[in-house]
Specification:
Blueprint lengths: L18 H6 L4 H9 L1 H11 L11 H10 L5 E6 L8 H8 L1 H15 L3 E6 L4 H17 L14 E6 L9 H8 L13 H4 L6 E5 H13 L1 H5 L9 E8 L5 E6 L4 H8 L9 E6 L5 E3 L10 H6 L8 E6 L4 H15 L5 H6 L1
Helix pairs in contact: 2-6, 2-10, 3-4, 5-6, 5-7, 6-10
């Protein structure tokens, strides 16, 4: 299938530090379109697109957007850029190479839901991404994309950056809120859910970087375009973080549902090392290993769920036959033992 990248189309083409370059390559057209549509119709576009969250849970984004849109009083938008899952680097590349896209998406989300303030919570180990975003936010204020009366809409929106301190647990939504509020990054009991009582106890829309950036082409091209890509129950383009024993590791944008074999051979150049495939860890450290007899598995949320696996954030780590899989498991166990926050007894005792 011939597929032209959309989410990564500007990467390597534009100067990530230049706002004018971003504008010249379609930047802020989605925000302008959202202002034309109005908040309610913009949220309806996200609902109709059937966008499933790209952070791992695959929760329908439109449900979150509608709930916060309908909520009353002060509201927030939070971009979860605390990308800490081993083997996952897609959000880092988006922030470093196309930072204005994330900022535009957060502003658009704020306009659509009626939120007056947003936060981008950046992983502490991503200094370059943080600096790129910091400079981009300043330029957006200068250009009038942030502040009062954005694009003549009458909507006021402000944006702050926050940095994590290296805790894996802060990628979990309520723990992230605790961190922004200046507390220890501990999970909260749910319910209430973030759309009801999130950051500072207010209704909050929280999405990860890829989920937010995916909304831009949905608003510009329409939900029918989005639904024409990939399987009907998991539509749209998807970013895969391909690493391990492949000849061309890196970020891959492909239609949702690309097979593991195609990802490795067509996009990754084949297996390196011994050249013989042993397994792939799909979904990050908390994911599932797929073996040689599962190479033709479609990498989408529903296909993997039927197997008892999960796509997670889209990380795929490949192992050739020279790798000792017991050592891999030991390293994964050590990672979780180190990163467990210790609040819940099963995790505390189990690791």
């Amino acid at each position: 299938m011939n597929y032209e990248p959309v989410l990564t189309a500007r990467i390597g083409v534009v100067d990530p530090a230049c706002l004018h370059d971003y504008e010249a390559h379609g930047g802020f057209q989605a925000l302008a379109r959202a202002v034309e549509l109005g908040p309610d119709r913009t949220v309806a576009q996200v609902e109709a697109a059937k966008l499933l969250g790209r952070g791992g849970a695959a929760f329908p984004a439109g449900i979150k957007w509608r709930a916060v849109h309908n909520a009353e009083g002060p509201k927030f938008v939070v971009a979860n850029a605390d990308e800490s899952e081993p083997g996952t680097f897609k959000d880092r590349i988006l922030m470093e190479k196309d930072p204005y896209a994330l900022i535009e998406a957060v502003i658009l989300a704020g306009y659509a839901t009626g939120a007056g303030k947003g936060f981008i919570y950046v992983r502490g180990e991503y200094p370059r991404a943080y600096q790129r975003l910091r400079q981009a936010v300043a330029r957006c204020y200068e250009a009038g994309y942030l502040g009062k009366d954005i694009l003549g809409s009458g909507h006021e929106f402000h944006l702050e950056l926050r940095r994590g301190a290296g805790a894996y647990i802060c990628g979990e939504e309520p723990a992230l809120f605790e961190s922004i509020e200046g507390k220890r990054g501990y999970p909260r009991l749910k319910p209430p859910f973030p759309t009801e009582a999130g950051l500072f106890g207010r209704p909050t829309l929280i999405n990860n970087v890829e989920s937010l950036v995916s909304v831009l082409p949905i608003v510009l091209r329409g939900p029918d375009w989005f639904n024409s890509i990939g399987p009907a129950n998991s539509p749209g383009p998807k970013l895969y973080s391909l690493s391990g024993r492949v000849r061309k590791p890196g970020l891959v944008e492909a239609p949702m549902g690309v097979t593991l074999r195609e990802l490795i051979e067509a996009h990754g150049g084949g297996v390196s090392g011994s050249g013989e495939f042993q397994a792939a860890l799909v979904g990050g450290a908390a994911g599932v290993f797929l073996g040689p007899d599962q190479l033709d598995t479609p990498l989408d949320f529903h296909s993997l769920a039927k197997m008892g696996a999960a796509l997670g954030s889209g990380a795929v780590i490949v192992f050739d036959t020279s790798v000792d899989m017991m050592q891999v498991l030991e390293r994964i166990a050590a990672f979780f033992a180190h990163e467990s926050c210790g609040k819940c007894y099963p995790c505390q005792l189990g690791t």
